[in-house]
UniProtKB/TrEMBL annotation:
<comment type="similarity">
    <text>Belongs to the binding-protein-dependent transport system permease family. FecCD subfamily.</text>
</comment>
<dbReference type="GO" id="GO:0022857">
    <property type="term" value="F:transmembrane transporter activity"/>
</dbReference>
<feature type="transmembrane region" description="Helical">
    <location>
        <begin position="327"/>
        <end position="344"/>
    </location>
</feature>
<feature type="transmembrane region" description="Helical">
    <location>
        <begin position="75"/>
        <end position="92"/>
    </location>
</feature>
<feature type="transmembrane region" description="Helical">
    <location>
        <begin position="210"/>
        <end position="234"/>
    </location>
</feature>
<dbReference type="InterPro" id="IPR037294">
    <property type="entry name" value="ABC_BtuC-like"/>
</dbReference>
<keyword id="KW-0472">Membrane</keyword>
<feature type="transmembrane region" description="Helical">
    <location>
        <begin position="246"/>
        <end position="276"/>
    </location>
</feature>
<feature type="transmembrane region" description="Helical">
    <location>
        <begin position="296"/>
        <end position="315"/>
    </location>
</feature>
<keyword id="KW-0812">Transmembrane</keyword>
<dbReference type="GO" id="GO:0033214">
    <property type="term" value="P:siderophore-iron import into cell"/>
</dbReference>
<feature type="transmembrane region" description="Helical">
    <location>
        <begin position="131"/>
        <end position="150"/>
    </location>
</feature>
<keyword id="KW-1003">Cell membrane</keyword>
<dbReference type="InterPro" id="IPR000522">
    <property type="entry name" value="ABC_transptr_permease_BtuC"/>
</dbReference>
<feature type="transmembrane region" description="Helical">
    <location>
        <begin position="162"/>
        <end position="182"/>
    </location>
</feature>
<dbReference type="Pfam" id="PF01032">
    <property type="entry name" value="FecCD"/>
</dbReference>
<keyword id="KW-0813">Transport</keyword>
Amino acid sequence: MTAAAPTRAPSASASVSRGALLVAALVVVLAGLCLVSIAYGALRVPVGDVARTLFGDPPTTRIDHVVWSVRVPRTILGIAAGAALGLSGAVMQAITRNPLADPGILGVSAGATFAIVLAVGSLGVGSLYGYIWFGFAGALAAGAVVYALGGLGRSGSTPVKLALAGVAVTAMLNSFTNGIVLTDPEALNRYRFWSAGSLAGQDAGVVKQVLPFLVVGAILALACAPALNSLALGDDVAAALGRRIAWVRFAAAAAITLLTGGAVAVIGPVVFVGLVVPHMARILARAAGIGPDQRWLLPLSALLASCLLLAADLAGRLIARPVEIQAGVLVAVIGGPFFIALVRRRRLAEV
């Protein structure tokens, strides 16, 4: 009998072509969602009027105001915050080699939440322009504390120690937050809306303030992709390949802090995006024959997360018009069953 010819692995150029095609397809989907997000809401704006307004010839002053002052900033914020949460989740799962890891494990979300509640409840900060910086500072401080605690000991920082430190800091900060909220009605009212996660009520000024931090975090996360591929082989192999393990973990933690802290400070702690989207990216990458290459998984996670958050925000505007359902609620409704099915049907190996 003649032996079957061995199947050849796809070439590097074929993988690049497939990855580029997949990214391009997601960009097209995201562009379509952006157009629909600008057109639909409590006031429906025809797509033709949206196009004329965007290119400088608005049909009416009202449509011009709705498009540029409300819908465009909201859509840009959805893209940026979604990409930030998706990227931070993918980096978190790669650096910890834990497929169930979530950005909140480093205490970043808890740090931002505590700082915002503290600013509103104890310091009397009433405007978003004021407490957004407290939220971001709280996220940075919590991330730094977790990294410092995880680095104690002769062995330095390890994925397990970072995770344990993150859980401890998160529990402590959540108890402080609950203590402030339960004793201050104003802080409780603000916290209830903010904690649900929403893109509503943010203008172009807020987007301009938070966007630089998200861009820096995204660049830092994407720059870590080759090193994350090495870390997937184990610390010893990565060190043998010339990777500076401590520096890679520090850079990854900084990226997670910037991305998650910036997004949470503006839209609230939206759950499941950073947890589920990286798994969706791996499924698409595997179907396209790309493999577990972080150089593709990170941008795919960013694009998928932006699509998910925009779709959830749009659905929240349309389901209960003229009122809205917060995007964070719908993301949880979408992400919860997906993640349960993922855990039940797939064997989650280490990333």
